[in-house]
């Protein structure tokens, strides 16, 4: 029924019925008009299985159709937070450049006044900085310096450390801190410290013209006169040039599966080490342990790691069967990455659900896919 399912299930130690059930869940949402298509990547025990269905672009140039597939780049939206900004911050902590207690104002001096100078990098990572969820900086005709001034001057909604409010603004600031601390642009740091070591060959910010034909279009944009393709969907990131700490990453399902394998491997590059040698690392094992344990004990409705959503958080999309140590994240465009370390399992689901507008939800689909695949684990 599904290409390669028997071989994939055997390699991953999964019941093939679970992979078939995940495929049927995707097809149901396609038939209901929720998504035009999807790419699913499942990785376990160092192996990977990829399934694609439907179209990445339901109304393409008839001479250049774009079916959903392993080579299609998807706008990852907020997966940027945990797939780019988070590991870069953790790596700089590993290097002794930053700490979780470092004040954001130490690197962004203008982020001061009215309590902002007390906000730490750890609070930005856990969304407990007190910052509001968002601010419209893109619709006023402001210059980029004016937009940054609006971000650094936004009023806190809560005293730092007292409430969890998921905030794009916090990761915008973290992206700027990374650039200053690493001494290079965010996209260059991502390439050198994450993408190249892990072999994430498709990962990119602001895809060049030559790559746009294989990027999944997102929402119809009246100003552009068509669906956005190869242009970041998030308005703030678009106004700021497409390279930001909270959004802007484009990647394939395979890219994100390789990234997930690094986390499941405790920060090591997932490849055999040379005889007698040590595995190469993107992150320390200590950083992985710290990022995947709770940092929001005592805050109602929140169970947040560093960047990651943990089991039981209000944003938890792991489904019913993933265990208490599972963690992951979602993206507004219809993307998600979830891991179950006790099963050595990671699930990447990429859709461009905003192709049909912002009202549709893939929440049911995520839960169904995660349940089916977790239930399929044989050990």
Automatic annotation (TrEMBL):
UniProt cross-references to InterPro entries, sorted A to Z: Beta-lactam-related, Beta-lactam/transpept-like, Diverse_Enzym_Activities
Coiled-coil regions listed in the entry: none
A single GO molecular function term of this UniProt record: hydrolase activity
Domain of life: Bacteria
A matching Pfam family: Beta-lactamase
Residue ranges occupied by any Beta-lactamase-related domain in the UniProt entry: 24-359
Keywords: Hydrolase
Hydrolase keyword on record: yes
Protein name (record): Serine hydrolase
Organism for this UniProt entry: Paenibacillus rhizosphaerae
